[in-house]
Amino acid sequence: MEIFGIPTALLGSQLLVGLINGSFYAILSLGLAIIFGLLNIINFAHGAQYMMGAFVAWIALTRFGINYWVSLIAAPLIVGIVGVLIERLMLRRLYKLDHLYGLLLTFGLALIFEGIFRDQFGISGESYEVPELLSGGVNLGFMFLPIYRGWVIIASLTVCFGTWYMIERTKLGAYLRAGTENSQIVQALGINVPLLITFTYGYGVALAAFAGVLAAPIFQVNPLMGSNLIIVVFAVVVIGGMGSIMGSILTGLGLGLIEGLTKVFYPEASSVVVFVIMVIVLLVRPAGLFGKS
To answer: In whole angstroms, how large is the CA radius of gyration of the chain?
Structure first.
């Protein structure tokens, strides 16, 4: 069976690849959007923190025998604590300065993290086995769906929309938003705003590490895996609107699917289609599709 002259199996497989990539774009851009939207920090270390999550899971499995399911919780927690230390010791000093200072600091940290891991593990990449519970696949008739790929999509969407609900629909999220708008009034109500800000950065970093653990069984675990992805993720954030939570989620998923379809109909453009869309959006709507002017 064919659609527009394209075999259904090929079209379905590329849509699946696009949805998987879109899931990673969504969860990574969500972390960036949270940090920028609530802290006004452009976290260029996000790709390195994604890489660190994958490496923590790989080290835990190969050297300590800690399985994937434990790492799925432990790795984001460990990398999130590193993020808390970064916020406490470094970023806190930059909140009243221009965004450029935060960008330069986090860019420098990304280079340091990548250099450390490259020195210790090289750049050839390490493999991480798919957990036994999620091995194999399901025959959908028109294509074969690997179970782990399906799990990545479900887990990413669950975390993304759960985070959106927490920020937009709960009292904690209201405190976070209010604290970034007028911290003095919120502190007068007895809320520890600096602690909330630290928690926000740590949570955004933990989202990157969670994505890294999800990616470990799919991609090679290597020190450059974050730097290869972060530029696309920044483009996703710009298209969705800087600081827009729902915009990051929907744009990440949508651009992943567009990228997958482009690989079918015009493969040569698949690596630049996201950036072409970004240019068009910036020309028409500089604040992004879901952003506020």
So the answer is: 19
If pLDDT is split at 50, 70 and 90, which confidence band does 134 have?
A: very high
- What is the average pLDDT across 209-238? 93
Domains, the chain:
17-284 (1.10.3470)
What does each C-alpha distance from 61 to 81, 213, 256, 258 come to in angstroms? 20, 11, 30, 35
**CA distances to 125, 155, 158 from 171, in Å:** 43, 24, 20
What does the pLDDT average to over 158-162? 95
pLDDT of 28 strictly over 90: yes
- Segment holding 56, helix H or strand E: helix 46-64
* Alpha-carbon gap, residue 205 to 86, rounded angstroms: 10
pLDDT at 16: 85
Query: Which amino acid would we find at residue 257?
Result: L
DSSP letters spanning 19-36: HHHHHHHHHHHHHHHHHH
- Among residues 256, 252, 258, 253, the alpha carbon closest in space to that of 236 is found at 252
* Cα 62 to Cα 181: distance, rounded to the nearest angstrom: 45
3-state secondary structure of 45: coil
